[in-house]
Structure formats: C-alpha cells, structure tokens
C-alpha cells in the first residue's frame, strides 16, 4: 500500500483520454485500487480517478457521506471499472465543486441531476444503477477525469472559480452586510 502523488491541473496525464481496463479482476488493478483508497483517505477528498494518480486507466473510486445523499444513507466506498454514464432527462443543477487536482479551489458547475451509471466492479460483475443529486454529481466529476475534463472546463461562469478561503471571505462580508 502507498499514498500516491496527486497530479495537479496542467499535468498532461489529466488532459488525455484514459484507456479501458482489460481485466477488472487482475492483481494489478486490485493493487492500484488499494493505493487509490489509501491516497483518497490521506487527501480528505471523496472521490479519485486513476489519472489523478498518474495512471491513465478507466478506474474511479468514491464514497458519499449520508449528509450529502437524498435518503441520508451513506454510499460506502465504491470502485468503478470502465464506467459509462448517460444523462437522464433534461433537468440540470448548478452547484459548488472542488477537485484534489486543483487544491484549495472551487467553482460553480452545471450538470444533469439524474444519470444512468453502468460499470464493472473488482469482481468483474457488470452493474447498472440510476442515481441523482450530489451522488450523480460526484460520479460525473470523477468520470470526466477519464476523458481529460476538469471541472473548470464545464463552468459557464469562470468568475465563480476561486480559492475556497477567499470565497469564504466574500460570504462573511455578505453576512456582515445583511446584519
Ligand atoms: Ni476531480
């Protein structure tokens, strides 16, 4: 097991299209996922895609805390091998996103609210699920990494991109102004 170095925006590994995994059940993929799990835990993030640890393969891990899900239940750590997503309906939502490859920053991103996710797990089973809300946002953000897309490339309004600490100052000013 190892905590891996995370590539930041600008690194070529984040800009390319990652390759499909040939054999989801291989020992090499299991080892990659173990290292990604350790790296995610160390980072304090909730999702990580293999290109972010300099491995251009279609592998994503994530979890969703119950405080961010629609039913209040935790989505425990999931491994997606060769995930495919399809937007369902036309309803989109704008919300704040951050990324381990843009440390300290956040921005407002519009995404479809509901998606169909198809993927293989580490046992090689093909699974399909319809998901929505923040869970669907996390999956879309992570799957974008497999196609060389970082969230600023999805933003309609780059004026909302900034450092989290500085954005928080603006929110405090607004509160002070309202008081
Ligand atoms: Ni990211």
List ligands, each type once: nickel (II) ion
Q: Overall 3D geometry?
A: globular
> How is the biggest beta sheet arranged?
5 strands, antiparallel
Number of helices: 3
User: What do we call the CATH homologous superfamily?
Assistant: Peptide deformylase
Structure description:
The protein is α+β, with helices and mostly antiparallel strands and 179 residues long. The chain has a single domain, classed as Peptide deformylase (Peptide Deformylase), CATH 3.90.45.10. It has three helices and eight strands, in the order αβββββββαβα. The strands form two sheets. The protein has a five-stranded antiparallel beta sheet. A three-stranded antiparallel beta sheet has the order 4-5-8. It is globular. It starts with 26 loop residues before the first helix and ends with a helix. The relative contact order is 0.18. The model has no long low-confidence stretch (mean pLDDT 95).
Short description:
The chain is of the alpha+beta class and 179 residues long.
Supply the key terms:
single chain; 179 residues; alpha+beta; five-stranded antiparallel β-sheet; binds nickel (II) ion
